[in-house]
Write the structure tokens for this entry.
Amino acid sequence: MTPRLQKLFDALSEFQPRERLNEVTIEVPAAQYKATCEKLKADPFGFEQMLDLCGVDYGAYADEPREGPRFAAVLHLLSVRHNWRLRLRAFCPEDEFPVLPSIVDVWPSANWYEREAFDLFGIMFEGHPDLRRILTDYGFVGHPFRKDFPLSGHVEMRYDPEQKRVIYQPVTIDPREVTPRIVREKNYAVER
């Protein structure tokens, strides 16, 4: 471990940090998520920048069913003053209706990232000033980055020349196998 990383570990000892691939991660319960963010932004930590916030669906993670909560928010923080980077992860307590507190008032840049996590994963951010879809259509049903969302979706849209407007209809795409031939055929690369 580098001296800079050790210094970060010492500073974050109350959070029980973990290192993997030369990157430090702390995991906090949902109830302490916002308070932890406020503490990390203030001195002595000084993580003044939130670089990224994303949702993660750990359902069937790495092709195995996972024990524990399914949805999490993962933040990447930067302290320019100390030259530290940190990953913060908080799991949503419920899988049916995943909710975490909003941190827009801690880092205003979280606004669009929280909207994206809501839109794509269905994670609600309590106290968010304008939580609405950002990437999908307002009439979109479901959350497309969830592991249980069908690959072809639920509906498709097309222009109807008779009605002179865009219409939604159930998906007409037939599922097909997209396994490459080299995997699908037993003797694909064998010389004859």
